[in-house]
Write a structure and sequence with these properties.
The complex is a heterodimer of chains A (459) and B (249).
Chain A: E1 3-8, E2 15-20, H1 26-34, E3 42-45, E4 61-64, E5 71-75, E6 80-84, H2 89-96, E7 101-102, H3 114-119, H4 127-130, E8 137-143, E9 149-153, H5 158-164, E10 173-180, E11 182-183, E12 188-196, H6 199-209, E13 215-220, E14 232-239, E15 267-268, H7 280-293, E16 297-302, H8 303-307, E17 313-314, E18 325-332, H9 334-351, E19 358-363, E20 377-385, H10 389-404, E21 408-409, H11 419-425, H12 429-439, H13 448-453
Parallel strand pairs in A: 2-4, 3-4, 15-17
Antiparallel strand pairs in A: 1-2, 5-6, 6-10, 7-11, 8-9, 8-10, 12-14, 12-16, 13-14, 13-19, 18-20, 18-21, 19-20
Helix pairs in contact in A: 9-10
Chain B: E1 4-8, H1 13-24, E2 28-33, H2 36-50, E3 54-58, H3 67-77, E4 84-87, H4 95-100, H5 102-130, E5 133-138, H6 151-171, E6 176-183, H7 205-217, E7 222-225, H8 229-238, H9 241-244
Parallel strand pairs in B: 1-2, 1-4, 2-3, 4-5, 5-6, 6-7
Helix pairs in contact in B: 1-2, 1-7, 5-6
The chains are: A alpha+beta (459), B alpha/beta (249).
Chain lengths: 459, 249
């Protein structure tokens, strides 16, 4: 029974009308697809945490996949997990962290599915050390347009594998994933905060500390200008030592930390405020306060607080009001980063649109997928409220700066980019299209983003 | 207390949440249904998440000839037999289709009512003999009053509710407890398309499973889940027929 619903990504902009197919099981979904007409298309969807329109399909079909969430096998000797793609990282954390295992890398929210993490080839604070999510995927089962379920890995259907990691769901529906989990000593991190006076210092600090810290990220005050442009609080972390009984779940004895995290009640934004609560003045006040209160210090922080501070507030995206926001995430190669990021921060400061949360991160290696976002350099992510035309003008300006400096934008965040911009940023696009043509010649799998950016060629 | 629990129709959305709920308090499970692959996936999931024992048994609600042997298999599965059985399966016919096609109407009655009698009588006899056990079954708020939009499904569930009522009465003296579960709209694939995905009436399967589990342990007789359906249905049940028949419910 398809049912029509207005749907959006996490940024709540755009909102598009899609037809939902929620099948009782995977075979039923496969059966539905085999009866699709020539003009009907579908995109799989996880927990809807990509920001713009990658998990939307205007006037067409969207298949929510969170019902397919079973953990099929976990081997504590090897750390190898086999699970259906709809399982959330939060579920994996609940059940496997007490046994000493954690996902090899995580985005800023645990409310994403395994399939979504693969499809966006997500990265985290440890990218410089451990690479992106796709680097840890051993293999996956993929339902392709012809109704076959294919096993894909770096040795089997390697072309399809490379197109699916970071492929935004356009190669098919991921049924299950085999993922290597990391053994961690506890559910805590030793964190060091270091303030920097400007962008230069922040970039240098991130570069110098690469070898010493598994996790690093800088929070940038986008409202600082002039000599203080890009002043930051750099957060550096390592896994905290566990106590000897941690893995067996024994109570804490002696030094070290356990796999138990403090229980917290989740707060929630219950409804839409009548206007954007994160406007210019609130953002300015928050940015000043954050910088002022984070003097250099060392603390121990649990995983929830360290990796997922915003998950503590359900529906925090409502704070931006009905019009929503976009997250603008750009990556610039190392030699271009200083000048390019300076220009971007100047453009944002000049626009008067404040970014509540701006995060800077040094990237490691090139991502494993054809459309993977990550490559060596620095990535900057900003939350920009949807102010209508002025946001579009700013985004277009930022797109141009990014192009000038050989940078790229992240598909999981993008809502506004032009297709020519995208093509210039992703040199492997043609190779991706070839594989797409081979396995899905009539574009059964398609999304609003794919059409907007021309990722999928229209016949 | 950890128990041995049989779930009939374990592949439904509510059943999945219930299986995980039971597993989280260290019960061992026997997951029964038609689709062996789906059952095996859920059993693997319960084992991987909670490190409990979960087995699988296949049966078809409409294959009445196999029911005796199937119930034997359920009792043989656990040493000491099961302590609880939870019936979770059901068939929701499209009302219009059921009006045109008697085979569909009959299927609804046979799945929701006749097969439940066939299976639960056998569990009841064993539990009665053993003087202990819990029988829980998912009926529906739709069974509380026949409505033009849903009376084929509704009447089959009304039959089930009345059957459970009688069973509870009979087994009370044998220390066997019977729980009637009346869920409203639950966020599962079965109800997708009936209500809007963001409707406030839609309850999460996890919440419903928690309430069912609690009701089983507290030996409640009839629960509405979520609880707000109880006063709503009280109103609907008590509306005089001469008024009710004029509504569009």
């Amino acid at each position: 029974m398809p049912d029509t619903a207005p749907l959006s990504g996490w940024g709540r902009c755009p909102v598009l009308t899609c037809r939902l197919i929620r099948a009782a099981n995977f075979d039923a979904l496969r059966d539905r697809l085999s009866h699709f007409g020539e003009m009907q298309t579908l995109i799989p969807r996880g927990m809807g945490r990509s920001y713009g329109d990658p998990a939307l399909n205007d006037q067409q079909f969207v298949a929510p996949c969170t019902d397919f969430d079973r953990i099929l096998d976990f081997n504590p000797a090897t750390g190898l997990l086999h699970a259906e793609a709809g399982v959330s990282l939060a579920d994996l954390m609940t059940h496997l962290l007490p046994r000493g295992f954690f996902v090899p890398t995580t985005p800023g929210t645990k409310f994403v599915t395994l399939g979504g993490a693969v499809a966006a080839d997500v990265h985290g604070k440890n990218h410089h050390r451990d690479g992106s999510f796709g680097n840890h995927v051993h293999s996956l089962e993929l339902l392709t347009a012809d109704g076959e379920i294919r096993t894909c890995s770096s040795t089997e259907n390697a072309d399809l594998f490379a197109a699916t990691l970071g492929g935004m769901g356009l190669t098919g529906i991921i049924r299950s994933v085999q993922l290597a989990l990391s053994r961690v000593p506890s559910a805590y991190c030793d964190v060091t905060y270091r303030r920097t006076a400007n962008l230069d210092q922040a970039l240098s600090l991130l570069e110098q500390t690469d070898a010493d810290y598994r996790y690093s990220v800088a929070w940038v005050d986008t409202l600082a200008t002039g000599k203080s442009l890009g002043r930051s609080v750099v957060m550096l972390g390592n896994d905290a030592e566990g106590h000897s009984g941690a893995a067996s779940g024994a109570a804490s004895g002696g030094g070290g930390h356990s796999y138990q995290m403090p229980a917290r009640r989740r707060k929630s934004v219950p409804c839409d405020p009548p206007f954007n609560l994160l406007g210019r003045w609130t953002v300015a006040a928050f940015n000043r306060l954050f910088y002022a209160t984070h003097r250099d210090k060392q603390v121990v922080v649990d995983y929830d607080k360290f990796f997922y501070p915003l998950d503590a507030i359900a529906h925090w995206n409502r704070l931006y009001g009905k019009r929503g926001f976009v997250q603008y995430q750009v990556l610039l190669p190392p030699e271009q980063a200083r000048i390019g990021l300076t220009r971007i921060l100047e453009a944002v400061a000049a626009s008067g649109i404040g970014s509540f949360l701006t995060v800077l991160k040094k990237c490691g290696r090139q991502g494993p997928g054809l459309l993977s976002f990550m490559q060596p350099g620095y990535t900057l992510a900003m939350d920009l409220p949807n102010t209508g035309e002025s946001l579009r003008v700013l985004a277009a300006k930022l797109d141009q700066i990014t192009l000038d400096h050989a940078g790229r934008l992240y598909l999981a965040k993008d809502a506004l980019m032009h297709r020519d911009t995208f093509a210039a940023m992703y040199p492997n696009l043609e190779r991706f299209r070839q594989i797409k043509r081979q396995y899905d010649p009539r574009n059964l799998f398609n999304s609003s983003q794919a059409r907007r950016l021309g990722i999928v060629e229209e016949p | 207390m950890s128990e041995n629990i049989v779930i009939l129709g374990a592949t439904s959305g509510i059943a999945k949440a219930l299986a995980r709920r039971f597993a989280s308090r260290r019960c061992d499970l026997l997951l029964a249904g038609r689709d062996a692959d789906e059952l095996n996936r859920l059993a693997a999931d319960c084992r991987a998440r909670f490190n409990i024992a979960a087995g699988v048994e296949t049966f078809d609600a409409l294959n009445f000839d196999d029911h005796a042997a199937f119930v034997d298999r359920c009792f043989a599965h656990f040493s000491g037999g099961p302590h609880c059985v939870v019936l979770c399966y059901g068939y929701m016919v499209d009302q219009q289709l059921g009006q045109r096609d008697f085979a569909e109407a009959r299927r609804t009655i046979d799945v929701n009512f006749t097969s439940a009698v066939s299976l639960l009588e056998r569990f009841a006899a064993r539990f009665e003999q053993r003087r202990g056990g819990v029988i829980a079954a998912i009926s529906s708020v739709a069974g509380d009053r026949g409505r033009q939009s849903n009376y084929l499904y509704g009447s089959s569930k009304a039959g089930l509710s009345a059957y459970l009522q009688g069973l509870r009465h009979r087994l009370y003296r044998s220390n066997v407890h019977v729980l009637t579960i009346k869920p409203g709209f639950v966020d599962t694939p079965m109800t997708a398309g009936l209500v809007k995905p963001d409707s406030p009436l839609l309850a999460s399967p996890g919440k419903v499973a928690r309430q069912i589990d609690l009701a089983m342990r507290r030996r409640r007789n009839v629960i509405y889940t979520p609880g707000f359906w109880r006063p709503i249905l009280c109103l609907i049940r008590n509306l005089p027929e001469f008024l009710f028949k004029k509504t569009k419910l």
